[in-house]
Structure formats: structure tokens, C-alpha cells
Write a structure and sequence with these properties.
single chain, 345 residues, alpha/beta, Arginase, Chain A, two-stranded antiparallel sheet, globular
């Protein structure tokens, strides 16, 4: 399996996040990629491809151009007001009864275009965002050239980012952009399989009224876990997209036996949809010791997950999402890849 990766994400660092009553260093940090790359190298996956630069044309089909412009100019505007250093984050958030159109103030933009305090912006954030998009789109290019499976090691992750809002460590939606690019290159139907611990509210929202992308997510119940307001089983799509959205929420404490049965349901729905390919939003924060997770999966279980996905025998584009248990992160990602490739080679 070819890996697409760039060091350009490394400048996105140094910010803090507010987690309930604590201000702590960001769990989503550059060292995550080091752990993954090193672990994949140790088990023989060394075919690393540098991403090529792509325009934002496809991204503009997924995201509001004004939102993308905000992401690019946010830190320079913040720096102009507060000086260099530190990080930009919202002071207020838009809500019902408040205007949702930003003015020229960086505070107004942050309030309009972010929905939580887990997407701080530093000097290197925009470069990392653009790099992640290039990493995702280069994966599409490689599959167009005949690769059956590739792994886009995107950072920052993307599945919480909607058309015009960033949140949950996510700024632009790499998986959604990849899915759109696959469609633009001739795919009639794409399935996004999201196995991150958290519901991909952004991916769901982007494709909720479309039938050319099936969104399937296994995640913690919104009653228990972030993002709290979306991810219910009752959310099945609207209009042309009705029936093309499947959420399988599970309670905190879910064991692998329960998770495996849910995954089999998800995979059967993908088989029934009969897509041209799968975009796999790969999060391994379902691991028992993940600091932001609550499921009980163990490292060997991730090989089984890879095996089950491989049994579909469909072209698969891996996109990296979450996973924050640093000591086990690389092993868990490597186990998914090993389990998948064992059955596809």
C-alpha cells in the first residue's frame, strides 16, 4: 500500500484546547504522524509518496469559498490584532437568534465559522490544512492511475468539518473532498465508511441530501459523546439522499464483540449500495485506552477490522482521522493496514 504524507502539517502545533474544566495541550499534535509513520515503516510499509499541489477547485464544491478564505486569513488577522504568538479561537459562537453572517472582525469570523473550542488556529495551521487536502487528492490521483488501495495520512483530520464550519480538530473535510474528487473522476457512487469513535457530523451534513455518496458511521451515542447534537440512528438523509445515511451509535463501554456486529451491518449496507469505491475515514480512538474515547477495543481487534473491510474486495482510499493514545497509536493503525492488506494482496 502506498502512503501519501508530507511534513507540512508540523507547523500546526502549540495551541491549547479546553476539555470540560481543563485547559490542556492539544491531543491532536504533530507527534501523532510520527508514531504512525514509524510503526508502518517497522512492519514494512515504506512506499511514501510526497503529495502534489492541487487547486482548491474541488474543495470549493465541498466548502463555502468564504469559509476557506477565512481559514487562510484567520491567523494573519489575529496576529494583526494581538501580535505574533498565541492562537486564535472564538470568544462567542453563533446561535439561534444571532446573525450568522460575519463582518470583517476576526472575532466575528471565528464565531461564525467555528462551532467549538477544539479548532484553534496558529501560524502554521493554514499550511497544514492545505497539505492535508493535497495529501487526500494525491491519493485520488494514485487510484486513478490504477492503485486499488492507498493511505492518505492527512493531518489535521477532517470529518467534523462541514460546509462552512470547523470544529473537533477539523478544518477542511479531507474525506469529503476525496469522495467528491473520485466522483469528478468518474465514480458514480462512493461510500464513506467512518470508523472514528466520534460521529463525523461534517461528512454527514455535506452529503445528507445526495445519493451519489453513502455515509456510514459507527460511533459513540450522541447522548454520551461529542459532537452531542448529531449521529442519531434516525438520521437517514433527506430528499435525494434519503436512505444514503446510516448511523450506528453505540454506548460508552462498547466491547469489540458488539462493535464487530455493528461493523458487519455497516459493511452489508455498503455491499447493497454497490459503490465504485470506499473512502475509509480511519479513526482508532475506539481503542480502550484512548484519552478521548470510551469504547473497549484492543489492539488485535484492529486487524480484524481491516480483515472485514478487505472482504468487500472494493478499491479503498484510507483517510486518517482520529486516534490519540500515543503509545498504541502506530500499532493500532498498522494493525488495520496489516489486516486489510493481508486479504487484498
Amino acid at each position: 500500500m502506498k502512503l501519501i504524507y508530507s511534513d507540512d502539517h508540523k507547523g500546526h502545533k502549540g495551541a491549547m484546547e479546553l476539555r470540560y474544566d481543563k485547559l490542556i495541550p492539544m491531543s491532536e499534535n504533530p507527534e501523532r504522524m510520527d508514531m504512525i509513520i514509524n510503526a508502518l515503516s517497522d512492519i514494512g510499509y515504506n512506499d511514501i509518496i510526497e503529495p502534489t499541489n492541487h487547486s482548491l477547485d474541488i474543495a470549493y464544491k465541498i466548502h463555502d469559498p468564504a469559509f476557506v478564505s477565512f481559514l487562510e486569513q484567520a491567523y494573519p488577522l489575529w496576529e494583526k490584532e494581538f501580535g505574533p504568538g498565541g492562537f486564535a479561537t472564538a470568544y462567542t459562537f453563533g446561535m439561534r437568534g444571532m446573525a450568522q453572517t460575519p463582518n470583517t472582525s476576526i472575532h466575528s469570523m471565528l464565531s461564525c465559522y467555528t462551532f467549538d473550542v477544539c479548532c484553534p488556529i496558529v501560524a502554521g495551521t493554514w499550511n497544514a490544512i492545505r497539505s492535508a487536502v493535497n495529501v487526500a487528492l494525491t491519493g485520488v490521483d494514485l487510484m486513478q492511475q490504477g492503485e486499488k488501495c492507498v493511505f492518505s495520512l492527512c493531518r489535521p483530520p477532517g470529518h467534523h468539518a462541514s460546509r462552512d464550519m470547523a470544529g473537533g480538530y477539523c478544518y477542511m473535510n479531507n474525506a469529503a473532498i476525496a469522495a467528491q474528487s473520485h466522483i469528478d473522476h468518474g465514480a458514480e457512487r462512493v461510500a464513506i465508511l467512518d470508523i472514528d469513535y466520534h460521529h463525523g457530523n461534517g461528512s454527514q451534513a455535506i452529503f445528507y441530501d445526495r445519493n451519489d455518496v453513502l455515509y456510514v458511521s459507527l460511533h459513540a451515542r450522541p447522548e454520551d459523546e461529542y459532537p452531542f447534537l448529531m449521529g442519531y440512528a434516525s438520521e437517514i438523509g433527506v430528499g435525494n439522499g434519503k436512505g444514503c445515511n446510516l448511523n450506528i451509535p453505540m454506548p460508552i463501554g462498547t466491547t469489540f464483540e458488539v462493535y464487530r456486529d455493528s461493523l458487519k451491518i455497516a459493511l452489508q449496507n455498503i455491499i447493497d449500495y454497490d459503490p465504485d469505491l470506499i473512502v475509509l475515514s480511519l479513526g482508532v480512538d475506539t481503542f480502550a485506552d484512548d484519552p478521548v474515547g470510551g469504547f473497549k477495543l484492543q489492539s488485535p481487534n484492529f486487524k480484524t477490522i481491516g480483515n472485514l473491510i478487505a472482504e468487500l474486495e472494493m478499491p479503498t482510499h484510507f483517510i486518517m482521522e482520529g486516534g490519540y493514545a500515543m503509545e498504541a497509536l502506530g500499532k493500532n493503525v498498522g494493525n488495520v493496514v496489516t489486516g486489510f492488506c493481508k486479504l487484498t494482496q
